[in-house]
Design goal:
The complex is a heterodimer of chains A (226) and B (92). With 226 residues, chain A is mostly helical. Chain A is 73% helix and 4% strand. Chain A has one domain (5-225). Classes of the chains: A mainly alpha (226), B mainly alpha (92).
Chain lengths: 226, 92
């Protein structure tokens, strides 16, 4: 039994291995990029009737925007592209689990680690943008320089937790379905699959909201200090 | 018992103990958190949105402990480094 789609290699050329994770990540990327290109190509003006898809997309974007606004009321729209893409990518790749043969790319530690590294880079970038390089890195020395290793430890461990949480939830979902197929086929795997869809959406929400909370904490720290 | 079976027994027992003991704490913690959140929502229904969002974040934090245990149990059973090392040295 393969615990992650990394181990299924579809095509190899020299040292390049094309595994299932990469292929399915590309599928999700294509789906998101092509779908939004198709819909946003002909956006209706304010007084024209809107197309069905434009309405659907506006609901999604507005819901994400509202959630981000709730966490940080002042400058929520700045984070919308980053956090929204995280949520949509994780959500779509988890939801496509209902397609037979699909292995969610989020069920591989390499994908989730890459997403967590994105968050780990975005936090200092947004922090530096709002308060400057020196002022941002000075918070590591507060209240005194003894706290420096603890600050570093907390940032590392929270990014690690972000990656392992998503990986563990999605991997355990597909794993439990696989085990139940061997023990009690036909009915219980369907129930667990439905539960897996719910868990997938909740995990996408949690990943995005935690990224927002971390970024907002780094930005607001500067605004309170000054 | 040779070393392969010792490693197999130890890994399976360790995985079972890891899941059994490691899920007690998060289960109790999540139960307390949800009970408190329900009580707060019952007292202040207007704040339900804020409370449930904070509850979700808190639950994710608590749950990550159980998921660390789960990942370690999975590693012990399906991708055991000691097991593969012993198997590879025995094959030589």
């Amino acid at each position: 039994m393969h615990i992650s789609p990394d181990q299924t290699i579809l095509w190899r050329w020299g040292f390049l291995h094309l595994n299932m994770t990469i292929v399915y990540t590309w599928v999700v990327m294509l789906l998101l990029a092509f779908g939004s290109w198709l819909v946003t190509g002909r956006l209706a003006q304010e007084d024209q009737p809107r197309s069905r898809w434009q309405n659907a997309f506006e609901i999604v974007v507005q819901a994400i925007r509202g959630q981000i606004r709730d966490v940080c009321p002042q400058d929520g729209d700045v984070y919308l592209p980053f956090v929204g893409s995280l949520f949509l990518f994780i959500g779509i790749s988890n939801l496509l689990d209902i397609v037979p043969g699909w292995r969610a790319p989020t069920g591989s530690l390499s994908t989730t680690a890459a997403l967590a590294i994105c968050v780990g880079v975005a936090v200092p970038v947004f922090g530096i943008q709002s308060q400057g390089v020196i002022e941002y890195f000075r918070h590591y020395l507060r209240p005194s320089f003894i706290m420096l290793p603890f600050h570093l430890l907390s940032e590392t461990s929270r990014n690690l937790a972000l990656a392992v949480r998503l990986f563990g939830n999605i991997m355990s979902g597909s794993m439990i379905v696989g085990i139940l197929l061997a023990i009690a086929p036909f009915f219980f795997p369907v129930l667990m699959q439905a539960l897996g869809l719910l868990t997938g959406m909740i995990q996408a929400y949690i990943f995005a909201i935690l990224a927002t909370v971390y970024i907002a904490a780094a930005v607001q720290r500067g605004q309170e200090g000054s | 018992m040779n070393s392969v079976s010792i490693i197999a027994v130890a890994s399976i027992a360790a995985a079972a103990l890891c899941m059994a003991i490691g899920s007690i704490g998060p289960a109790l913690g999540e139960g307390r958190a949800i009970a408190q959140a329900l009580q707060s929502i019952a007292q202040q229904p207007d704040e339900a949105g804020t409370i449930s969002r904070t509850l979700f974040i808190g639950l994710a934090m608590i749950e990550s402990v159980a998921i660390y245990c789960f990942v370690i149990a999975i590693i012990l059973i399906f991708a055991n480094p000691f097991w593969s090392q012993v198997v590879s040295t025995a094959g030589k």
